[in-house]
Amino acid sequence: MENLNVCIRDKANPLQINECRNKMAANEDSFTQLSSILALTGNQVRLKILYLLNQEKELCPCDLSDILGMSIPAVSQHLRKMKDGNIVEFRKEGQTIFYSLKVEHLDLLHPFFSIINGKNLTVERYE
Amino acid sequence: MENLNVCIRDKANPLQINECRNKMAANEDSFTQLSSILALTGNQVRLKILYLLNQEKELCPCDLSDILGMSIPAVSQHLRKMKDGNIVEFRKEGQTIFYSLKVEHLDLLHPFFSIINGKNLTVERYE
DNA sequence: TGCTTATTTAAGTATTTGCTTAAGTAAGTA
DNA sequence: TACTTACTTAAGCAAATACTTAAATAAGCA
């Protein structure tokens, strides 16, 4: 970035800017991690898969393909992304592979499911 | 999709599949809306902007450009997406435009800010 | 009025995404 | 052993994304 288009208004608070910059630097890793998880949920197909896994406990690629009306490789590739992103896991039973949500990030995901179920956000606790 | 690669195992529960399919159809709009909001948060730059707006109440593109170390047009385009997505709004003061979070979706966003601040939702705290 | 400042918009581009089809793997089954 | 079945992986491609630079807009200010 050349940044020739600099804003030089004197109302800006350099102290505030600097504090913000430090905070960003300090939390760089958190932003990276969280945004990558949210990117996984920010796709309609994957959000549906996550919702279904939450509701049905576990499902195989075949079932998901059937429910979502899309090809098995397409589903499989979404599952791989989420497995790599550490929000789903699987177990094998014969040649069938059952996917499920990892407990680790359930707290992040649960409010999303509540929204979809129509239980509005403002009441989003469920203990 | 040609779906030649169909799974035909007999263990599948057609009743379960069908219920799921109905549920997906019934909530189609919710999935579309929520995933599009989550897609906005699933970008590191935008997540940072949202975090900063939450913390500083309001900021102009110029400040954000300065804090994030990126060009003003780049910031402006992210802000536009989020404005279109209805999660930020703005007010004008002279030639300066101050962006802020829309209250409407604060409940969805707040847990993200808590995670970044280290107040983790789950058990993995470290204080 | 003309010049500067703050911001947006537009056009161009490299990268990423999400599908497709085809091929590969691995666990039953005959 | 060979043939299914369930799934993954690879390659290819159209569309979307996120930046870049340059031009446009619009609000002060001299």
Rg of chain A over CA atoms, rounded to whole Å, is 20 Å
**How would you classify the quaternary structure?**
homodimer
Largest interface, per-chain counts? A-B, 63 and 62 residues
Helix content of chain A: 55-70%
Number of strands of chain A: 2
Strand content of chain A: 5-15%
Terminal-residue CA separation of chain A: 48 Å
Q: Specify the CATH class of chain A.
A: Mainly Alpha
Helix/sheet category of chain A: mainly alpha
Number of separate domains of chain A: 1
Q: What is the succession of H and E elements of chain A? A: HHHHHEEH
Largest sheet of chain A: 2 strands, antiparallel
Can you describe this structure in just a few lines?
2 copies of one chain form a homodimer. The first copy, chain A, is mainly alpha-helical and 127 residues long.
Describe this structure in words.
- Chains A, B: This is DNA-binding transcriptional ArsR family regulator.
- Chains A, B: Residues 26-121 form the HTH arsR-type domain.
- Chains A, B: It comes from Pedobacter nutrimenti.
- Chains A, B: GO terms for molecular function: DNA binding; DNA-binding transcription factor activity.
- The structure is a homodimer of 127-residue chains.
- The first copy, chain A, has helices spanning 14-26, 28-41, 44-56, 61-68, 72-84, 106-116; strands at residues 88-93, 96-101.
- Chain A has a two-stranded antiparallel ribbon.
- Residues 123-127 of chain A have low confidence and may be disordered.
- The longest helix of chain A has 14 residues, at 28-41.
- In chain A, a hairpin with a 2-residue loop joins strand 1 (88-93) and strand 2.
- Chain A has 127 residues and is mostly helical.
- The first copy, chain A, has a single domain (14-123), classed as Winged helix-like DNA-binding domain superfamily/Winged helix DNA-binding domain (Arc Repressor Mutant, subunit A), CATH 1.10.10.
- Chain A contains six helices and two strands, in the order H-H-H-H-H-E-E-H.
- Helices cover 57% and strands 9% of the residues of chain A.
- The first copy, chain A, binds a DNA duplex (30 and 30 nucleotides) through residues 1-2, 4-5, 7-9, 43, 45, 60-62, 70-74, 76-80, 92, 94-97.
